[in-house]
Design brief:
single chain, 252 residues, Arp2/3 complex 21 kDa subunit ARPC3, two-stranded antiparallel sheet, 2% strand, Cobalt transport protein CbiM, CbiM, transmembrane helix
Length: 252
């Protein structure tokens, strides 16, 4: 029996090695999305209530996708793993928070933004419980910024640029990078809303955005590039799955 691997098998092995390496170099969990206890109880409840309808919508969206084609489960699991790994690699930033790539733009382009609300919530739960990255009380706020606001912007931009016949790779890059940046615009609003008594909301927001920009702009660029590379690889080695979710086609 031949021991050689097919091209698809080699790609899967390479992806698993990259996944393991990411965990091997992951820094200690000494920073958060928005850390446990940093938001007042009223805002924790508010953001949780705002996020809930999107999560419910996401469950229905995922069920519809999986029922239509069971082969999409592995691709969805890959998107969830990508979000988990890439959002766990973080840089300390604004007090009570941190900067990191989100990975949610990629999932939004593949499955739609509603599905990513569920994937992001699952990731945030695991990170809060296992890595002390984020918190259970702040999970509604973190879910809204990272798994709802950012993905919806990425998806909307991608569709608009696709209709404008923007080059596919440029489209993917911009959609994922700008969705990442918008996540941190929302986080800056959340942080400023919670803690602005000394300087006012506007000054607190501008201050948060200034600190985030120093680290988040280069991270967003990196995320955009990674997203393009991953989608190119999926189109080459997971063609059937990409066709099943209706992603192949559009502007070139």
């Amino acid at each position: 029996m031949s021991q050689s691997l097919s091209k698809k098998q080699k790609w899967i092995v390479a992806a698993s090695i990259a996944f393991a390496v990411c965990f091997g170099v992951m820094p200690a969990a000494n920073a958060m999305h928005i850390m446990e206890g940093y938001l007042p109880a009223s805002l924790c409840v508010f953001w949780g209530v705002v996020a809930l309808p999107f999560v419910i919508w996401g469950f229905f969206s995922i069920r519809k996708t999986v029922n239509a084609n069971r082969r999409t489960i592995s691709l969805m699991a890959m998107a969830g793993a990508f979000i988990f790994v890439i959002s766990s690699l973080k840089i300390p930033s604004v007090t009570g928070s941190c900067s990191h790539m989100t990975g949610t733009g990629l999932g939004a382009l593949l499955f739609g933004p509603a599905a990513v609300a569920v994937l992001g919530l699952i990731v945030l739960l695991f990170q809060a419980i296992l890595l002390a990255h984020g918190g259970l009380t702040t999970i509604g706020a973190n879910c809204f910024s990272m798994a709802i606001a950012g993905p919806f912007v990425s998806f909307g931009l991608y569709k608009l640029m696709d209709k404008a016949h923007v080059n596919r790779k440029v489209n993917i890059f911009l959609a994922c990078a700008l969705g990442d940046l918008f996540t941190y615009c929302v986080t800056a609003v959340q942080m400023a809303w919670a803690h602005h008594s000394n300087v006012g909301f506007g000054a607190a927001f501008v201050s948060n955005m200034g600190v985030y920009a120093a680290t988040q702009v280069p991270l967003a660029i990196i995320e955009g590039i990674l997203s393009v590379i991953i989608i190119m690889a999926l189109e080459s080695y997971a063609t059937a799955e990409m066709k099943a979710i209706g992603f192949l086609g559009g502007a070139e």
